Amino acid sequence: MGAFYETIPQSVQSWILEQKMFWVATAPLSGSGHVNVSPKGGEYFGLIDEKTFWYMELTGSGCETLAHLYERGNGRITIMLCAFEGPPKIVRLWGKGRVLESESPEFNDFVSNFNIETIPGTRSIIIVDVHQAGSSCGFSVPVYEFKSQREVLNDYFKAKERKYKQGNEKESMDRYWALKSQFSMDGLEAMKRGVEVGRREKIQPMKKMVGPRTPRNQYSRSRVRGSALETLALVLVSFAMGILIALSASSVVPIIPGLDRLWALPS
């Protein structure tokens, strides 16, 4: 049944590389934030060693994973794979994720060192430093027959790249990222390149939530600054209260007979 490992066993490594899809789960630190689970297909993942998993993160309408990995104090990520053919099996990898954004020096080095072929829709490489691996039975997972990977996304971004190279500036990936990859649905900053282009070219990000649970000023940069100001205000208030308590205590001590002599007693 269930088994846990500090590193990914060789037998599990081989099994992982045979799978046709996997899921990625991340979440913001806030309890009111939204947990994200994304399915991933294609042969765009691999293992560097028994503690390191990587995958090519493709461009989409959301950017939750990057936002959660970039969030200060966060970085948590879980990878899950299931067997749909052959013996049942579920494997999970728990760890911390690192983002290598497209065309950054770190991204280029990684792609070059591991001979990875990127595609027009590539947004980043995610590296997962695994601290725990686990396998379980998967007895309730249905059996499916794999037919093929979908090429719709790849074809879409190939066409977009072709139009851009032909001179249509509106088809640039930077503008697309600024529109759809600046923020998470909870308003956390996501793709740094998208945020930078959005600020420079004043591109408003796409709205990603509706209804009463939509965060106030969801995609306003004042929301990020406001959060920092709130933290600073809390620190200053706490400091002031500490001073007031200390002053109050010093004024109370002489009122209690003999209390001032207690401080002079040997310990």
From TrEMBL:
InterPro entries: Pyridox_Oxase_N, Split_barrel_FMN-bd. Keywords: Membrane, Transmembrane, Transmembrane helix. Residues 9-133 form the Pyridoxamine 5'-phosphate oxidase N-terminal domain. Gene3D superfamilies: Electron Transport, Fmn-binding Protein, Chain A (2.30.110.10). It comes from the Eukaryota. The chain crosses the membrane at residues 231-256. This is Pyridoxamine 5'-phosphate oxidase N-terminal domain-containing protein. It comes from Thyridium curvatum.
